Amino acid sequence: MLRAGIVGLPNVGKSTLFNALTSQQAALAANYPFATIEPNVGVVPVPDSRLEPLAKLVKTQTIIPATVEFVDIAGLVRGASKGEGLGNQFLANIRETDLTVQVARCFEDENIVHVEGAINPERDIETIQIELALADLASIEKRRDRAQKIAKSGDKDAKAEIEVIEKLLPALEEGKPARTIELTDEEKAVAKGFFLLTMKPTIYAANIDEAMLANPESNAHVQKVKEIAAEENAEVVIICAQLEAELVELPVEERKDYLASLNVESSGVDLLIQSAYRLLGLMSYLTAGEKEVRAWTIKRGMKAPQAAGVIHTDFERGFIRAEIVSYEDLIRLGSYASAREQGVMRLEGKEYVMKDGDVVHFRFNV
Q: Which listed residue, 1, 15, 24, 216, has the most CB atoms within 10 A of its CB?
């Protein structure tokens, strides 16, 4: 399962966002640093409008969406890379995630104290980036020392490590993320083994107040966050965490009406989840029968046998072929029988590359 870590300075809205994401008040949203000590974990469904129509078509009440696991990690402070605050613990929690959602406070509220005394998302982002970069710098300097000793014997892998480390070091020494450095596919494969904090894909959640939702582009703080993200090839999602946390108290059917009254088309939480899914190159294929309709998470470019293995390893081991119809064709024709009659249901073999929205039945034998 995809694991996303929510990070940021204290009192920027991390725990409020987590509550909204998980539709519960599990995280302690308190007005003081370190309100979150242990990382809260929530499993969040990936919004997918295809599931309900598919469930109606196959006449099942059971819908199981794809999911993302969000981890609410306690606020970082200056000196975290050297153990300040709860630094070492926080950095370890971030290291265990697949991507980071960095919450940048872009709203003013004199009732909510800021750990740095004033609202400045550029400074906040820089503070976190420096701490993560310093932690990465210490990590790869140790790795370089080991690799240099091994490389003396002519070890090719060690030499390759050193070459990649030398590319990354200048950026980290300047407090910049490792992901800003252009690497070849081969170099990326080497760097992946370093488990660097600043190599992780990042989404900036620009947290604004409700008054700004209809026109977030007028917020100078949001514009600055977008500039930073563009330099790093990161994504930005504009969100009002407080509003999203309040929305979960409403019945589902009333949420869209309330957003519409604010001239907002869709939930920032939905956009954030979809962005996390997209950023990691993930997609969903679907299975649909009388028992359940379900979305399965796979990497883009995955072939049919490996996709079958997501359901069970036996499916991959004994893969024969996949019976596939696109979601659009199945809904348009109204049944599997019609899809077969119209020739849009296909049998695909081991080399078939899965597509988002494929509705699949795997044939296997073990």
A: 15
Q: Are 111 and 249 in contact (CB under 8 A)?
A: no
Helix (H) or strand (E) holding 44: strand 40-45
The answer for 195, left when phi > 0, alpha when psi is -120 to 50, beta otherwise, is: left
Q: How many CB atoms are closer than 10 A to CB 290?
A: 9
Strand (E) or helix (H) holding 45? strand 40-45
Query: Other CB atoms closer than 10 Å to residue 61's CB: what's the count?
Result: 7
**Phi/psi of residue 75, nearest 5 degrees:** -65, 135
Give the model's confidence band at 25: pLDDT under 50 very low, under 70 low, under 90 confident, else very high: very low
| CA dist., res. 323 & res. 188, Å (int) | 35
**156-173 and 185-192 helices, crossing angle to 10°:** 90
Q: Supply φ then ψ for residue 6, to 5 degrees.
A: -90, 115
- Nearest CA to 237 among 271, 266, 265? 271
> Do 207 and 105 meet the contact criterion of CB atoms below 8 Å apart?
yes
Picking from 35, 56, 48, 45, the residue whose alpha carbon sits closest to that of residue 1 is: 45
What residue has token string 């060690």?
158
- Cα R_g (the chain), whole angstroms: 23
Mean pLDDT within 81-100: 69
Cα–Cα distance measured from residue 54 to residue 359, given in angstroms and rounded to the nearest whole number: 10
| Helical residues (DSSP H) of the chain, grouped into ranges | 14-22, 51-58, 87-95, 121-151, 156-173, 185-192, 220-232, 241-247, 252-261, 268-279, 304-311, 313-317, 327-333, 336-341
* β-strands 293-299, 63-64 pairing: parallel
Confidence class of residue 127 from pLDDT cuts 50, 70 and 90?
confident
Phi-psi region of 200 (alpha: psi -120 to 50; beta: other; left: phi over 0): beta
CA distance 311 to 110: 50
pLDDT greater than 60 at residue 24: no
